[in-house]
């Protein structure tokens, strides 16, 4: 079925007058057809400038970090620098909503990150997990069948983020992923890069407990790029790529 903005223009009797006018406006104005995206951008800009959470979810996470009534604040939102904080509170630093830079995040930001992932993943959805595993298997099988090069990366994370999940589930996750993603003999189109416990990534490479700074991103790109190059060279011939990078990938599989 075509989306409304893809349909040829026609005033249809099975639609209400409002719907027909809406589609007409979308056909006549690019800005009107992008009203949803523009709305989201304006909301984000307003929230950034007013130092206000953009959603109930974000506000809930901030509330979890708020100190008890009467206690000194242990974090500040962007622009709110007037509150007096104790020495212990100041050591937490600030949370700047909508603010991006390349510095290592404050303890307040890391607390926010941990609470966010607790909200996302706890309790473990034991019904959803096997469905996700099956989807991954289907992606691998499809790529193998169509001879599509596939590189799977088990991303590096901080121990603080990993500790959000119960140890038994973490063990199950690692075992399952390695079993599914490790190439079998003859799997020339599949590569698995396991960086989950790679000691080359330091805490200073992360902005919060998950997302990397430029130093971590550079390390990650340097480790992934040779594997991609190797995959391309195996599928398209050595002359198709600069093979001097490919030799670096041998120890990763």
Put the structure in a nutshell.
The protein has helices spanning 17-28, 30-33, 35-50, 56-65, 87-90, 107-121, 128-145, 159-162, 167-181, 214-236, and strands spanning 150-154, 190-194. With 253 residues, it is mainly alpha-helical.
Description:
The protein has helices spanning 17-28, 30-33, 35-50, 56-65, 87-90, 107-121, 128-145, 159-162, 167-181, 214-236; strands at residues 150-154, 190-194. Strands 1-2 form a two-stranded parallel sheet. The two termini are 43 Å apart. It has 3 domains: 4-33, no CATH class; 55-99, no CATH class; 128-252, SGNH hydrolase (Rossmann fold), CATH 3.40.50. With 253 residues, the chain is mainly alpha-helical. The chain contains 10 helices and 2 strands. Helices cover 48% and strands 4% of the residues. The relative contact order is 0.08.
Topology:
Elements (H helix, E strand, L loop, with lengths): L16 H12 L1 H4 L1 H16 L5 H10 L21 H4 L16 H15 L6 H18 L4 E5 L4 H4 L4 H15 L8 E5 L19 H23 L17
Parallel strand pairs: 1-2
Helix pairs in contact: 4-6, 7-9
Key descriptive features of the protein:
253 residues; 4% strand; disordered C terminus; Rossmann fold; 3 domains; 10 helices; mainly alpha; 48% helix; two-stranded parallel sheet; extended
CATH architectural label of the largest domain: 3-Layer(aba) Sandwich
Total helix count? 10
Strand content: under 5%
Number of domains: 3
Q: For this structure, what is the CATH class of the largest domain?
A: Alpha Beta
Largest sheet: 2 strands, parallel
Which stretches are low in confidence, meaning pLDDT under 50 for 5 or more residues running? 1-5, 70-86, 239-253
Number of strands: 2
Strand order of the largest sheet: 1-2
CATH homologous superfamily label of the largest domain: SGNH hydrolase
Mean pLDDT over the residues: 76
Q: Radius of gyration in whole Å, from Cα?
A: 24 Å
């Amino acid at each position: 079925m075509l989306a409304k903005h893809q349909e040829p223009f026609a005033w249809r009797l099975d639609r209400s007058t409002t719907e027909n006018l809406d589609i007409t406006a979308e056909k006549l104005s690019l800005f009107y057809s992008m009203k949803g995206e523009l709305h989201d951008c304006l909301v984000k800009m307003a929230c950034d400038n007013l130092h206000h959470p953009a959603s109930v979810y974000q506000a809930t996470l901030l509330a979890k970090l708020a100190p008890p009534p009467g206690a000194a604040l242990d974090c500040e939102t962007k622009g709110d620098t007037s509150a007096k904080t104790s020495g212990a509170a100041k050591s937490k630093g600030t949370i700047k909503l909508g603010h991006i830079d390349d510095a290592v995040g404050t303890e307040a930001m890391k607390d926010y990150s941990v609470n966010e992932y607790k909200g996302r993943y706890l309790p473990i959805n034991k019904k959803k997990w096997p469905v996700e595993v099956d989807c991954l298997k289907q992606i691998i099988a499809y790529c193998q069948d169509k001879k599509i090069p596939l590189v799977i990366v088990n991303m590096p994370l901080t121990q603080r983020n990993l500790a959000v999940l119960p140890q038994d589930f973490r063990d199950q996750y690692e075992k399952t992923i390695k079993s599914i993603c490790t190439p079998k003999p003859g799997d020339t189109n599949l590569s698995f890069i396991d960086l989950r416990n790679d000691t080359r990534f330091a805490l200073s490479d992360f902005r919060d407990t998950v997302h990397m700074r430029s130093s971590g991103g550079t390390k990650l790109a340097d480790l992934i790029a040779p594997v991609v190059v190797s995959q391309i060279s195996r599928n398209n011939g050595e002359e198709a790529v600069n093979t001097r990078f490919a030799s670096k990938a041998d120890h990763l599989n």
